[in-house]
From TrEMBL:
Chief place of localization: secreted
Species annotation: Mizuhopecten yessoensis
SUPFAM superfamilies: TNF-like
Keywords: Secreted, Signal
Protein name: Complement C1q-like protein 4
Length: 255
C-alpha cells in the first residue's frame, strides 16, 4: 500500500477508536444521570410524605387544642349551673326572720360563706377565660426578642388578647395554661419563648432539618391582674422565617 493509503487507514482507525470512546462515555454518563434522577425522585417522594405527615400532625394538634378549650368551657358552664342550683337550694332553706335578728345575721353569713366556697371551687365568680389566635402572614427574618403578633383571633372568651400587639393581658388572677406552636421554613433553626412581664417562663427549639418543621410547647403560669404574656423569638438562623396559619397561640384559666 502507498504511504498515503496507510496514513488514511491509521487516521480512520484513530477516528473509530475516538467514536467508541465517546460512545462509551455517553452511555456511562446517561446511566449515571438516570441513577441520579431516580435518587432525586425517591428523595422528593420522601420529602412529600414527610411534609404531608407534618401537616396532618399539626392539624391534629390544632383540633385537639380547640377540643380541649371547648371541653373546658362546657365543664365551667356545668359548674356554674351546679353553683346556681346550690345557691337556689340554700336560699330556699333560709326561714323568714327579722332583718336585725341574730338568727337572720347568722343565716345570711352562712349563705354567703357557702356561696364564697362554691365560687372558690368552681371559679364562677371570676368567669371563664380562654383564647386561641393564629398568625396569617409570614414573619420573615424576625428580630431577636421580637413578639409574634398573632393577627387572627379564632376564640376569645373573657380574654384580653390583642391581635395588634400579640400580648395577652391578665384581667382575672389565677393559674393559666398556655400553649404555642411555630411552623418554621425548611433547613432553618429557631428558638421561641413564652414571656411573662419580660421574663421567660417557657421555651421551644425547632429546626435544622431539610423539611418544613413545627414544634409546640405548653407552660402552666400563675398570673395576677395586669400581668402580660406573649410569645417572642429568642434566636434563629440567618434568613429564617415563621410560616403562617399553623403558627398559633392559645391559653385558658384553670377553674
Amino acid at each position: 500500500m502507498s504511504p498515503t493509503l496507510v496514513n488514511l487507514a491509521n487516521q480512520f482507525n484513530d477516528l473509530k477508536n475516538t467514536v467508541k470512546y465517546f460512545e462509551a462515555s455517553r452511555i456511562k454518563f446517561t446511566e449515571e444521570l438516570s441513577e441520579r434522577v431516580t435518587d432525586l425522585e425517591r428523595e422528593r417522594a420522601a420529602d412529600v410524605r414527610c411534609v404531608d405527615k407534618s401537616l396532618t400532625d399539626l392539624k391534629h394538634l390544632h383540633d385537639k387544642d380547640r377540643q380541649t378549650i371547648l371541653n373546658l368551657t362546657e365543664t365551667v358552664q356545668s359548674l356554674k349551673s351546679e353553683n346556681m342550683a346550690l345557691m337556689t337550694m340554700l336560699n330556699d332553706e333560709v326561714p323568714p326572720a327579722q332583718e336585725d335578728s341574730p338568727y337572720s345575721s347568722r343565716v345570711v353569713r352562712g349563705v354567703q360563706t357557702a356561696y364564697d366556697y362554691v365560687n372558690t371551687r368552681t371559679g364562677s365568680s371570676e368567669g371563664t377565660v380562654a383564647f386561641h389566635v393564629l398568625l396569617t402572614r409570614p414573619l420573615l427574618n424576625p428580630g431577636l426578642h421580637q413578639t409574634i403578633v398573632f393577627d387572627k383571633i379564632t376564640t376569645n372568651v373573657g380574654a384580653q388578647i390583642s391581635n395588634n400587639t400579640g400580648v395577652f393581658s391578665c384581667n382575672q388572677p389565677g393559674v393559666y395554661v398556655f400553649s404555642w406552636q411555630v411552623l418554621l421554613q425548611g433547613s432553618q433553626y429557631m428558638i421561641s419563648e413564652l414571656t411573662k412581664n419580660g421574663m421567660r417562663v417557657g421555651s421551644q427549639e425547632i429546626g435544622n432539618t431539610q423539611n418544613t418543621v413545627s414544634g409546640s410547647s405548653t407552660a402552666v403560669v400563675e398570673l395576677d391582674n395586669g400581668d402580660e404574656v406573649w410569645v417572642s423569638i429568642a434566636a434563629h438562623s440567618q434568613g429564617s422565617g415563621v410560616e403562617p396559619h399553623l403558627t398559633m397561640f392559645a391559653g385558658f384559666r384553670l377553674p
